[in-house]
Design goal:
- The chain contains eight helices and ten strands.
- The chain is α/β, with parallel strands linked by helices and 275 residues long.
- It is globular.
Length: 275
């Protein structure tokens, strides 16, 4: 649920195989929503797409399928290991329309190119200067092309029903550490304004918030973040070891109750067209 840079210059939650697997599950949960947004944005065969902050490339692979043999996808990410995973997987499947570039989205200039569509999910929230990246994306998208983003706008909607004091403490600890690291969890509130300033027309905005039971597949998305997020809070000093263990235990206990409901963190979907 949280993407950023770690002390080695890659990714705050690591780039090991278990994290690649977690990101795969996360994309699997969100894939129907991404595909639907791309369809409404007009993404289609023969086009060139930019996957901004691609990670290990799960969305990139879907975009490559949409682009087809006459189109292509350029995947941008800071992590060389993630990009290597994407390249290896694409080669194994015989997918030849993906190009990767290792880039620091916080400071580097995007490749000089014109694309028909650009996609960004849970990237802007972790940058020190996200407005700059929006401007860079604007330069890359051709007039008439579209940009689609999924970013949090109300992270603190993440709650359990009935309410859990422990989970609320955890969410507060996550957002405190997030902001202390230079990011902004509710960055979605700023994105439409930045896009207009950069020469886009806002076509559509949608809040994406779900109310789940432990039986729902989407439950696995927040669940996989709880333990790793609690550990990260300990590292950042926003939770003690005792409180982090209490978060993990409390969440597991509530998950065993079939009457529990979870409200997911609020995500804002934005579809914009370049003028």
């Amino acid at each position: 649920m949280a993407n950023s840079n770690d002390s080695t210059g890659d990714y705050v939650l690591g780039t090991r195989d278990d994290e690649i697997h977690r990101l795969g599950l996360q994309h699997s949960v969100w894939r129907p929503r991404a595909l639907d947004a791309w369809r409404r944005a007009g993404f289609t065969s023969g086009q060139t797409f930019l996957d901004v902050g691609s990670g290990p490339g799960y969305a990139t692979m879907d975009l490559a399928e949409i682009a087809g043999a006459d189109g292509n996808v350029v995947a941008l990410d800071k992590s060389g290991r993630f990009l290597s995973h994407l390249t290896t997987r694409a080669a194994g499947l015989g997918i030849a329309n993906i190009r990767t570039q290792q880039i620091d989205l916080d400071v580097d200039t995007l490749p000089g190119m014109q694309v028909d569509g650009a996609w960004c999910r849970w990237v802007l929230a972790f940058l020190h200067n996200p407005a700059r990246l929006v401007g860079e994306i604007a330069k890359a998208v051709r007039p008439g092309g579209t940009f689609v983003s999924h970013e949090y706008f109300a992270y603190d909607t993440w709650r359990l029903l009935p309410p859990s004091v422990v989970l609320t403490e955890f969410v507060n600890a996550v957002t405190t550490g997030w902001r202390a690291s230079g990011g902004e969890p509710d960055i979605g509130l700023q994105i439409p304004g930045w896009l207009v300033e950069a020469g886009f027309e806002i076509i559509e905005t949608r809040p994406l918030v779900e109310v789940l039971t432990p039986r729902d597949y989407m439950w696995q998305w927040p669940k996989t973040f709880v333990a790793i997020g609690a550990e990260r809070c300990v590292e950042l000093g926003t939770l003690s070891r005792e409180r982090a263990d209490a978060v993990v235990a409390a969440f597991a206990q509530r998950e065993r109750d079939p009457h529990t409901r979870m409200i997911t963190p609020g995500v804002l979907e934005v579809i914009a067209r370049k003028l």
